[in-house]
Amino acid sequence: MPSQHQVYLIPGLFGFGKIGQITYFNHVRELIEAWFKSAGESVAVHGVATSPTASIRTRAAEVYASIQETADDDGPIHLIGHSTGGLDARLFVTPNAALKIEPDELEALAARVRTVTTVATPNHGAPVAGFFSSAMGSQLLGVVSLVTLYTLKYGKLPLGLLVRLGGVLTRLDDLIGLRGSVLDQLYEHLLDEFDTKRQGVVKEYFASVGGDNAALGQLTPGGIDLLNAATEDRPGVRYGCVVMKASDPGWQTVRAIGFDPYRQASNLVYRFLKWVGTDEASKYPDPTPQQDRMLTDRYGQVPGPTQTDGIVPTRSQLWGELVYAGRGDHLDVCGHFDDVEHDPPHYDWLATGSGFDRAQFESLWGAVTDFLMRTESAS
To answer: DSSP characters for 108-169?
Structure first.
């Protein structure tokens, strides 16, 4: 009997496997299983639990622990990392990585890895990390993360709270020096929107964040430049990437999302995240010929340094073979897009006017699964 493929889904910063009934990779497992089954291949898909904001080194060691616990004896291993999870995967498979793990044991598992797929990963850094590393930024990140959890669970934040968040973002300069009191109040109001049982789960999750938040400093372009200098691709492993680009704010975006007050307020949050996550001076390596052709075919041209998925610059997401280039935001790729009619429903993270839908979601993960199942060796 052929060996079973072992696929590992690694979440990004502030990521989680599951909080209550909120799933990070929403419906991704089912699509991968269906694609493998249609090809007559056996697969086991695993979710990896990593510390939400811990250092990349710590998270890579947690990837090892998850694989050691669940992988069978000899099946090929495939790592799929969303956002920071892609960096965790790359570090884990780096030859002779120093992860405070017995070298022979680490190598035994890393040598079985056949593919590493980075999905919307800041492979060359994310300027937004610099902002969120500040004192005010870290408090705001907690609020935005809580908004994300609520939206992914319930679909819509109460309009009053969303408008209030938008007001905070538009006058952020006025809040400097208030020691975050406004943000603290907003956080508490958001938490009150969860029922008592879920409040406990959410509080436990955020308590785990305070222990180690080293990843924020590491995700800046300068931090990732050091990571890239200290890591290398493993021979025999095929590296692929999924990149995303959300619509640029403007009149066309306003028309695309409609004049619904809720979606316009949500778009305001997106515009803020894009603003703090853009650095026109950022330099990225030139795309490979294969990447250049696919980017140009998908977007009409190679994206510039200011074009992002709302969190990560599109050009920063390139690493290895370009498997899929899409129009959408940072969490659309994980199944958090607008499709409330689906059973179970998909809820959008932010309104960006990018038009990401179920057909694109299935196309994306079909392309990823095809990449996993290829048999050729790495170039």
So the answer is: HHHTTEEEEEEES--TT--THHHHHTSHHHHHHHHHHHHHHHHHHHHS---HHHHHHHHHHH
Please write the tens of the pLDDT for every residue from 223-274: 999 999 999 999 999 999 999 999 887 777 777 777 777 777 778 788 888 8
Sign of CA dihedral 72, 74, 75, 78: positive
Residue type at 209 in one-letter notation: V
Rounded Cα–Cα distance for residues 39 and 121 (Å): 28
Give Cβ neighbours of residue 320 (< 8 Å, ≥ 6 apart).
116, 118, 233, 238, 239, 240, 241
Longest dimension (CA), the chain: 65
Q: pLDDT tens-digit profile of 64-87?
A: 999 999 987 788 999 999 999 999
Residues 360, 44, 319, 12, CA torsion sign: positive
Task: Tell me the two tokens of residue 132.
Answer: 């969120």
